[in-house]
Specification:
This protein is mainly alpha-helical. About 85% of the residues lie in helices and about 0% in strands.
């Protein structure tokens, strides 16, 4: 399994590293903004970068599946006594690590900055937990969307589907906000997409 995970990271290094770089940029802007005063331009730019970050998760999943579809990599690996379930599991693990590696540092810095500069609120701890969990689930949902959309040989569907569906999922936060209801919806969507992706992937012809 570790060799499969390492292979996935090497084969898609750009797509794994890019979200982490965007996250570091957001962290840098957030620190500068809190230290030298909040400006509307900085907040807006961070918002745009956050959207780019979530779309980046979708692109990672789409790249993993599309390159497999076009190069038939899993078909080759399946001849080497490696099951498709293990291949997909390795990909999902890489996706989870990328989402966590990108979001957790940014959320940690945001929490520290709010603790230092924002006025204390009674519901602060609950709000932080709900926002953190919701954003993490949203990031993983975007990745799962990429997995589903990427399993296609149609490039136009790939190019149009990834940003469109990722954008629709991101808009869920604007509609439902952060909280248990949004988390439940995200978990259900993630489970449905993973089951569908697994079913398609393992049943694909060699």
């Amino acid at each position: 399994m570790l060799s499969l995970i390492g292979r996935e990271i090497r084969d898609h290094l750009v797509y794994v590293v890019s979200p982490c770089v965007v996250s570091l940029i957001v962290i840098g802007i957030a620190i500068c903004t809190f230290l030298w005063g909040i400006e509307e331009a900085s907040v807006g730019f961070c918002g745009i970068l956050a959207i780019v970050l979530f779309i980046g998760f979708s692109i990672l999943g789409a790249a993993q599946m599309y390159l497999d579809r076009s190069n038939r990599m899993s078909a080759l690996l399946s001849t080497l006594a490696v099951t498709r379930s293990r291949i997909l599991a390795a990909r999902v693990i890489v996706g989870v690590l990328t989402v966590l590696g990108s979001l957790v540092p940014a959320l940690f810095v945001a929490i520290v900055l709010l603790r230092l500069f924002a006025p204390p609120l009674e519901f602060y701890s609950r709000m932080v937990v709900e926002i953190s969990i919701t954003l993490t689930l949203m990031g993983f949902l975007c990745y799962c969307i990429g997995l589903q959309v990427g399993w296609t040989a149609n490039r136009s569907r790939l190019v149009l589907g990834v940003p469109l569906l990722a954008g629709l999922c991101i808009s869920l936060i604007a509609i439902k906000g952060f909280g248990p209801e949004a988390m439940l919806i995200l978990v259900v969507l993630i489970a449905a997409l993973l089951v569908r992706t697994w079913s398609q992937f393992v049943s694909a012809s060699l």
